Fold these 3 entries.
Entry 1:
Amino acid sequence: MKTQKPTPSPAVVAIPEISFELLHQAHDGMVIIDDHNTILYANPAAEALWGYDPGTLVGRSVGELMAASVENGAAPFDINTSIETVEPVSGEVTFENRSGDYISAEVSLTTARVGTGARSYRLMMVRGITGAGHRSRVVELQNTVFRSLSSEIQIQDVADMVCREVETLVPNTVAVLILLDEQNRLRILSGPGMPRRFAAALEDMRLTEADIAALANDLNEATTIVWDSYRSVGISLGLHHCWASAIRTRNGRITGIFALYSRSERNRGGWPAQIVNSCVPFCGVLIEQHEARQHISQLSNYDPLTGFLNRTAVHKVIRSLIGQPGDNHFALYMIDIDRFRDINDALGHINGDGFLKSVSERLKGVSRSNYVLSRSGPNEFLIIVPNTRRDDALKFADILHGCVKQPIEIGGNMIVPTLGIGISLFPENGPDGESLLSYAEQAMRQAKRSGLGMTHLARSEDNKAAQDRLLLGSALRESLAQGLLNLQYQPQIDVRNNTLYGVEALSRWNHPTLGNIYPSRFIAVAEETGQIEAIGTWSLERAVQQILEWDAHGIYVPTVAVNLSAGHFRNRNLPGFIARLLSDSKLEPHRLTVEITESVMMTENEDTNMVLQSIRNLGVALSMDDFGTGYSSLSRLTRLPLTEIKIDRSFIMNLEHDANAQAVTTAVIGIGGRLGMTVVTEGVETVRQLDLLCQLGCDVVQGYLFARPMPPEKLEEWLRNDRLAAVLEEAKESRAAASE
């Protein structure tokens, strides 16, 4: 406490006295700290902010104040850092005061040397963020939501962003946005932090008409619905309080609930409820957008020519049928119209469409109401017949052949169509949709090889290799879900200065029962079964995480190259995904390289070019993998925003003895150099190959000469032990021995 001093006349008030009074009367918290992090002075504003009685902060360690910082609001600096090394810093921190309230504040820390001994002291200034400040943050969130909804960002991503931001505004909470479907069941649209058991309990709930009426009368009744009945479950999972509001459209319809659950046993007052109520309006707009997009998606599930389900929609139906309980059987027919290309070429596409429509009407005419019909290709149809076994499946195939025997008049021509029909059966021909479709397609091809108007029933012995692929595809899906894939890393060496250029991330799969599966095998299966994009997405996430882990261990890897399939680059959301990945991890873009294959170049179109350019605009490098093995076009190469090209190992295998291989390699290195691209050569295994590549002007090499692909921890060991220097020294000795 301040010692009473005689009050001097205004003309002679001492500067220290003025300074002290300014600190004492300041509306912002002022804390003076010595070089042992002990509080020497705290003004009333600081004491009130942290909830301490007057004079009780002096003598305490400042760490006691900052130790109360909570998750989502950690201090922007380490208060315990040596006072000699702390530069002026500032940032926002959220802490829990002695009353249990969460306080958000702007904190700045300044160091000064005072007195003849130049002893160091720090002044910490703390300004609490007021309710108006919080409201402005909610407005910012609202504006961000509206901007996101006007873009191509997925609704799920926007909802996740809302929940995360609200959890930041009210720390130690879990936010959840819940939809009310057409059957009045609760469906969680977003709740990243929600315990699974509690989420499952909510999604088991179906609201009654009385519940809907209560919500329409009082939106805050939502707390009763999503908390009161589940309080004991919530408390057992670490949730202690809930603030919720129903979401109502402009026409009065209840469309969902926005809820906030606290992990703290203390009641946080009225601020969480204010946050929830402030978020309800733009959450309502978000749900409306979700419903609109769902409606558009539903419209896009049907083929406009025939009115049948399209390929995407029928795959969902197949998964649904497989998931039904009990002794479930059904037949899947893949139907191809024989000689349809001739009809199209001879009569034109308009008449061809008319012919397809006539055939589809006949197929529909012999199908019962519970059969599922789909147009799965230009001249292919799928029919799913429930509760059907082998004999009945063959009988229906005869009915299908019979329904098209009568001629169809198209463009003044009478044409008698014939069908090639392949049949697969569930569960005999596979446990999943990919298996059934693959078997049906194999059977259809067999039917067409047998002649016109034929049927073939799928048998496992028809194609053992296909069966193996199907088994592998199913195992791969399970392994992806269970995290059984891993990445290994092969060093890339910059031969211009003999340093580490980066590493290439390579997928590896060691199955518990199938053993070690070669990448060439499971990557092909992944492409056939539609899992390759999931592997690519996982590889990006894991590679970025690994860079951060290496950084934390003091290991600097300049860049990691990740292979992506051609399918990724048809997805317009890929650049946004990479941007979020970099932003969330705070990784510099130049430390990530995306490798593309020549097939991307062959399928070059406006969407692909846009995706590639957007990725490059992020600052991420783009590499053309295995250059020269496909149908590369130099004109296309110049149009792509590439930063490097990789020469395939097949050219390097015979580099020492094959003049043609040397000529091609020389040409590629020259092209890369003239286009300003880094040239990387794979498969370098001998010192002679290395020397030839250096003479030809290659920039970067990788191969067994330096290291095989290895797990992350082995790469750490490789780098710590400076194995690169050892390899280069061995190469030098090998050259010397060869010259003797």
Entry 2:
Amino acid sequence: MHVRNIGILAHVDAGKTTLTERILFATGMTHRTGEVHDGDTVTDFDPQERDRGITIFAAAVSCDWAGHRLNLIDTPGHVDFADEVERSLRVLDGAIAVFDGVAGVEPQSESVWRTADRYGVPRIAFVNKLDRPGADLDAAVASIRDRLEVTPLVVQLPIGREGDFAGVIDLVNDPPASAGAARQKLEEAVAELHPEALDHLDNMSDTTLKKAIRDLSVTQRAVVVLCGSAYRDKGVEPLLDAVVDYLPAPAGDPAKDLVALVFKRRERLTYLRVYDGTITKGDTVWDAGAGRTERIARILRVQADRHTDIDRAVAGDIVAVAGVKAARTGTTLSSRQRPVLLEAPRTAEPLVSVAVEARTRAGALKLPAALAALAGEDPSLTVRTDPETGQTLLSGLGELHLEVAVEKVRQTTGLELTVGRPRVSYREAVTGGVTGMLYRHVKQDGGAGQFAHVVLDVTPEPGTGFVFASTVTGGRVPAEYIRAVEAGCREALGDGPLGGHPVVGLRVTLTDGQTHPKDSSEMAFRAAGRFGLRSALRACTLTLLEPVAEVTVSAPSDALGAVLGDLAARRAQVTDSTVRTVTATVPLSELFGYATRLRSRTHGRGTFTSRPAGYRPAA
């Protein structure tokens, strides 16, 4: 059977989960449609998702359409769960990007679009909710063109507007005569980008047009745009046809050696994408990164929280397996005879932390294992102990992310927990460097000694990265010791002199060094790099950076003054303002509890969205 592996991406409340429900119903996988507001959808099966009315965890489902198996992943739309989207996009071949027909491109829909760009995932766009007051396909398409910087190919027209929206007109397959001008406009747009279509511009057949559109979509030279209303079940079946027609099939050969990537762990199941080869129940596979074997006890076709046992999975499949003990997100599973390492999904750095403590002594003994298991499932969560207070700190991508994580621990373990106030993760940036910083690491304790002599230059580097270089000549420091110095420097970056925060924005250059014929080693030079950079940083000028977010606030015009005043009190820098919206860059620490404050200021009529916008000097 032919396969399509696709994700459903969007800003929160654009209608992703509702669309997934209608797809499952249209393909015969369900016999009734669930609703987000009723808490009975297939993919939002976690109790917290149903309570909160949002998608938190990426959920996979499979269905059949037109002789194709569609493996769908419904992804979260809230910015706090962007890493779930990242991990999903790493293993997908295509995606449906859902846009609100009133709002068009929103902040998080733009963010997930850029993530899909980075992974080279072809997309088709579905402009949803055309039955809502204010919905405008042309305006939504214009926002796709302008904000996402792509060429949209509109292949459908709506029948009716807003409350009178009744369906869609197909401009590719036998369009009615009344749509002749729109069909011609589509042909001309395709011909500008596709040479074969240009040759047939005077008399372009449906087959020629469809083939050219597919070529443009798969190569990402253009984006196919469809429209409809998932809630009213308008435009869903044509969208499924478009998935088959315009999104790529997975590459891969079932006869080759196994190559599969783990992209998600949930409880005792490991989710993976098979790129090459075949996995059979009972197989032993190789984790090349860790140098160990794993046994595949069961293979499961996933239907959200339900699973069906299958005997094997082949290239192109997305499945869950049981029995894998140690593999984590980003692990490559392959054959031992041909070990392979694939690029792992990126993991965002935590921005917010809370202190978590158990209320009982028995709970305190269980808490570390529970938090470790949580971080094992979600790599964007980290757990550490504060060296000053001894508190256990749970760090994540936002306030809601941490609320969900803590509640999951409560639900799965029954522990009574105390949670501290959220606090943001600061950074320390080098603004003034030092040169010629000499550090000698000498240690003699009766056995083999340690000797390493390094000279370091530390200079500011644009951005928030770290660059290491060496200008040592004449073999004064061997290459393996230079690598050890770099490793030691990287270790020193986690604990800056201003307040113990990670250090960013610097270049370290090893300019000279000395070795000892007996006592020098990689360990000694690693220690010299670590302690030498710490000494250098204490001599540098550093600035404290705080995380900021781009916030877009929507409110009635009569409440906008109060909104602007409140943002100013939160140290916001306003970048754009209209009669109903304000866009500003706001320190993340000032956004804790902002939703409640905004509702109060606007009598419940204001809403806001946010997304990370990097760091800036703390006031």
Entry 3:
Amino acid sequence: MKVGSFVCSCADTCDIDLEAAREGIEGVDVAASSRLLCEDGLPAMEQVIDEYDLDQVIVTCPERRVQRKLERVAEAQGVHPDAVSFVDQREGAGWVHDEAGATAKTARMVNARQAGLEAESRPQTLTAAAGDSVAVVADPDTAAALADDADVTLIADGNEFVDAAADLDGVTIERGRVVDVDGRFGEFEVRLESRVTEDCISCMKCVREGPDGAVTRYPVDIDPDAPDGAWTDVCPTDAIEMDGVQRTLEFDQIVYPAANRRTRGGRVGFYTAPIDAATISAVRKHLGGIEKPAHLDLEMDVCAAGDSSQPGCNECVEACPHDAVERARIDEVAFHEEACQNCGACTSACPTGATRLREPSNERVAREIEALLRPTDEEGGWLLNRSGSDVESPIVAFVCSEEADDALAEYGRLAAAGKADVKYPPILPVRVNCTDTVGEAHAMHALACGADGVAVVGCGGDCLHSGPDPKAELVDRLNRAGRDLELGERFAFFAPDPDEPGAFVEAISTFAVDLEPSPVSAGEHEATGGIDDGRERPPFDSHGWTLESVRAILEHVDPDREVIRGLKDFGRMAVGDGCTLTPTCSNLCPTDAIRRDEETATLEFNHERCVNCGTCEEGCVEDVIAMRDGLDLTLLPENRSDADDPAWVAVHDGEMRECNRCGKPFASEGTARKIQSEVGDAVAGLVPGAQGSVFEYCGDCRAQLLYDRGNG
């Protein structure tokens, strides 16, 4: 696989040093740059793809219309469209950071994208036929409602969707006003007219210079009544055409609330107001087919949900906001994948890796974090030069791909258009489906790789999945763990409001300023995604991945505390005096973290394996087991080198009863006494000639005594 990267400054509207950005990109066969890649740079791009025989291309371009253009260029040179990947160097970097920060961040994001693509999961989908394209005119709510089932294009019809409450992440947005609709079901043609051509790159110059209210930002378009003037000459791509240009788009179905009945006629697949649930259902019914991704990898044989009618771990059921997981039985959970909304809540909560998000997978997230924080040369690299002016305090930001991502993009557009002064530290983004995707394993891995801080950037009160402050509890736990590790508080949750950039800028800036440089060296740690505890486990399970990260952190810190609190996937076992050494807990434990030694009457516990599911505590017949969360460093095998079997520690020392006849230990004293107290009266005098009661004999000798009595 030959990979090339292309960096663009978007007509010099982005504060990016193109040469320095190229030098910071690693792991590719060629890194090229252009001031305006989608125009003057296209011939050079074609030449580079051909000369280096590239199979995969990473381009810095956030504009979807331009992305399609670049995909066509790459495809013409033999690169599959799916092998063209894009990075936002503009709204998320060049428009909101200074040149050094934007340059460093751009290079890092390209490196992270390359690392992530290498770990990308193969897609698994439900097959779907063609014929699912739907045009929705000026109705963002309907567009969002159909986006999961159809290829939706939202036609602006003169409107601006910067402040749309609906989730338009999966929707293509087209500028222009509808002039005419022709055709029939499966062959509709929509003719649009606009004052901005397809050459527009959304650089915001016309928005900045144009008359107030005459130019929309998203999508960029000009009101037909806008006056001519010198401001129309500012476009770097000559995309302004005040006389208007027309184009025709094709769709299978049309949702056009403002159209009249005459326009619609009796055509099937053409819908006008009122648009309600029945309309949405009708559109879906007439789709030629859909393609729904399989979001989860399930490996239920490692699930800790319980056993033998004992409820165990219930994390996924409690975490899922869409009722896609249920307790099918008291000791089993069931997943309804058709209801899954790809938020990742169950996967970040699951300690054993029984459920894992396919994309982004934990491994992909890990590789992107490592690439974002990796120095670029043996001396530490300019990207991590904290004494200079670029990324002085590297902060890994897990950014929700829904409203939070949109808000950050809007901040960039506001800054570029001169509508707001938006400058904040160059946080290093890892795009996730939802902040619910993020768990303690992801955050601890970022610290293990040398991040000064970890920001969880989500939707806050408007979260489509989990409601207000979905990660407040996680942040509190992680900061407790950070304090116990002598790292201090390095985690925070942010909910950017697109209408209040100042609040976000102040909050993230304060967070960055308050962070001390991490004692953990950057660029040294590369995760394997697990631990070697003698058990086979799914890759990058939360428990194993977290423990691996903590061990990497402990190479650089020396905490005073023995127990690291706040890490919920680790359990500490305490056993009371009433233990009779029955095999219940060891049989129930889903991770084999408990074992019985009958020769020594000892119950042993493996802290390294325990995921704190609570099954042993719930199933204990004597009710003497108590579990507490937290990682106890003294119980890890590397800290018990003087023990014969350092991974195991005795949590209960009993006494074995020896057989009066053969001398063989056969049961713990506690078990024997308990059985004797319950049924002793019923069998008293059963073998009059025995030395002591029948409970003082092993099973073999007890049987022999009864046989001798019966034949005496």
